[in-house]
């Protein structure tokens, strides 16, 4: 009995991969955004969708599936058929924080998804009401230490990225600030605008309009570097070395999605985000355009999980 040659086997393998790629391109790519329209994650998805469709050669459909801090949308992707046609726009909350805060998720976050690529980092900005005397981070730290427990900061809820940034800032500066949780980022910023609280940490995207209008003062951004859209606003790390607390958005597929589908989508995301006009639009929204390999993205998720698991344990933070 004669077995096929290596060349024949290679040809058959390539034919199979080509058939899979053709099958994928024949059906739309459904991108599940596990949050309501208008937020940072949704905005990022809509900024890249058309260009991503061009690179993939297939239609990209965005479906918003909000609820339960992103769990509802994530669960839909975790249960989806792993053929590369349904993917998740995840963020630091859905992938690195929720598995710590919620002990009974309907999926195992460590095994339910196959990371594909980061799209952008979303630094937060330390905001204060104009009535706060501090004009920079050193002055704010001095004010907080002079009046321990007198100032408060608003967040979108216990365990949110806004909350964790605030707790990280308190630990790094050894200050006492009262946490005031709200049911969402909108109410949290609304009460900051009204002066009911004095501080908040929010994404650049959701706070840019208020900064430009002078209704809120931006003291610093929470990433490792300054952001292009706020070039004159320093980082917290320029005062508190090593400080970094950012959110991010990226694409994940259901576990067991074929490797060729993962690599094909990762390449398309890389080429999409590398387009100057796409990178510029992301930067204008306060994001920092950045892609990764699937392995790099997986390592990033695990690293953030470890960082926030320690913080959440130390502070005794629980989900509401």
From TrEMBL:
- Would the keyword Signal be found if you checked this record's keyword annotation? yes
Q: Which UniProt keywords apply?
A: Signal
Extract the signal peptide range.
Answer: 1-23
Please give the SUPFAM superfamilies that the UniProt record associates with this protein: Periplasmic binding protein-like II
Q: Which Gene3D superfamilies match?
A: Bordetella uptake gene, domain 1, Periplasmic binding protein-like II
Q: Which InterPro entries match?
A: BUG (IPR005064), Bug_dom1 (IPR042100)
Question: What top-level branch of life does the organism fall under?
Answer: Bacteria
Family indicated by similarity: Belongs to the UPF0065 (bug) family.
> PANTHER family per the record?
BLR1237 PROTEIN (PTHR42928:SF5), TRICARBOXYLATE-BINDING PROTEIN (PTHR42928)
Q: What is this protein called?
A: Tripartite tricarboxylate transporter substrate binding protein
